[in-house]
């Protein structure tokens, strides 16, 4: 099966809605200038909640070849959960993707695999695609336990799910030590864990699921290293932080195939 590469920009807590509109316009212009072919990669921006309406309006009204989504979601449907945003609310804004369980959420907001599981399920139930983030810290990497640690996170994220549900997700492998540090995992490091994630999905949910689910790599992806990372057979895209904040940095990542 051919898995279409997904190049997703996670803006994190950057860019207000004015800046968001400006970046989307610049990105659309730069992609057109680079002869971007949306058949060869899918380009998505994951914005702060406050930017989504502005980004949606721009992308839909100008029919830009970009997807958009959010960086987190509530595990609850509605009610007395001050400050939270439900999957249904995001779906009503036409979001396609929602990042769940990013290492910054796990670290600063104590998100466990159980919470990631519950949130991802809400995203699926609302008809969107969760980008479920997993990955080891430096201590685990130094002990050489990156595969077992990351595979256990994947098993926890989808415990109790059906194969049909898991077939709808995207998994992002982000070694925490490579996020925002300039330390990029080697292509072989990325391949090792992405392949193990795929193998785990295969043994738990079947070969079709393993063939279908896109596994992304994230952690200091840049124009200068994207091609070698994307050349790995089990890497189906990138989750990009810092380099997604400028059109001139993100465009060559999205058009890595050129
Ligand atoms: O979600 C994106 C990752 O945290 C990677 O961030 P980075 O590209 O700035 O290292």
From TrEMBL:
Keyword Transmembrane helix: no
GO CC aspect terms: cytosol
Pathway noted in the entry: Carbohydrate biosynthesis; gluconeogenesis; Carbohydrate degradation; glycolysis; D-glyceraldehyde 3-phosphate from glycerone phosphate: step 1/1
Enzyme type, top EC level: isomerase
Domain of life: Bacteria
Gene3D superfamilies in the cross-refs: Aldolase class I (3.20.20.70)
EC number: 5.3.1.1
Active site, per annotation: 102, 174
BP-aspect Gene Ontology terms: gluconeogenesis; glyceraldehyde-3-phosphate biosynthetic process; glycerol catabolic process; glycolytic process
Classification via NCBIfam families: tim (TIGR00419)
Family: Belongs to the triosephosphate isomerase family.
This protein's name: Triosephosphate isomerase
Species this chain originates from: Raineyella antarctica
Higher taxonomy: Bacteria, Bacillati, Actinomycetota, Actinomycetes, Propionibacteriales
């Amino acid at each position: 099966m051919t898995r279409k590469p997904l190049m997703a920009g996670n803006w994190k807590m950057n860019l207000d809605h004015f800046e968001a509109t400006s970046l989307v316009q610049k990105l659309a212009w730069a992609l057109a200038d680079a002869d971007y072919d949306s058949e060869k990669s899918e380009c998505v921006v994951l914005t702060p909640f406050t930017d989504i309406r502005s980004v949606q309006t721009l992308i839909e009204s100008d029919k830009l070849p970009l997807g958009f989504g959010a960086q987190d979601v509530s595990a609850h449907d509605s009610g007395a959960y001050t400050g939270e945003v439900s999957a249904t609310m995001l779906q009503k804004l036409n979001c396609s993707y929602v990042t769940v369980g990013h290492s910054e959420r796990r670290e600063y907001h104590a998100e466990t695999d159980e919470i990631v599981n519950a949130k991802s399920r809400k995203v699926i139930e609302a008809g969107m695609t969760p980008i479920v983030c997993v990955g080891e810290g430096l201590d685990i990497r130094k002990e050489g336990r990156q595969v077992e640690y990351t595979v256990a996170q994947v098993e926890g994220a989808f415990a109790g799910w059906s194969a049909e549900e898991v077939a709808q997700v995207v998994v992002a492998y982000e070694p925490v030590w490579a996020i925002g540090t300039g330390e990029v995992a080697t292509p072989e490091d990325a391949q090792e864990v992405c392949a193990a994630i795929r193998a785990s999905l295969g043994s738990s949910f079947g070969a079709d699921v393993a063939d279908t689910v896109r596994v992304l790599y994230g952690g200091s992806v840049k124009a200068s290293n994207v091609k070698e990372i994307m050349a790995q057979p089990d890497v189906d895209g990138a989750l990009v932080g810092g380099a997604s904040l400028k059109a001139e940095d993100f465009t060559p990542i999205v058009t890595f195939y050129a």
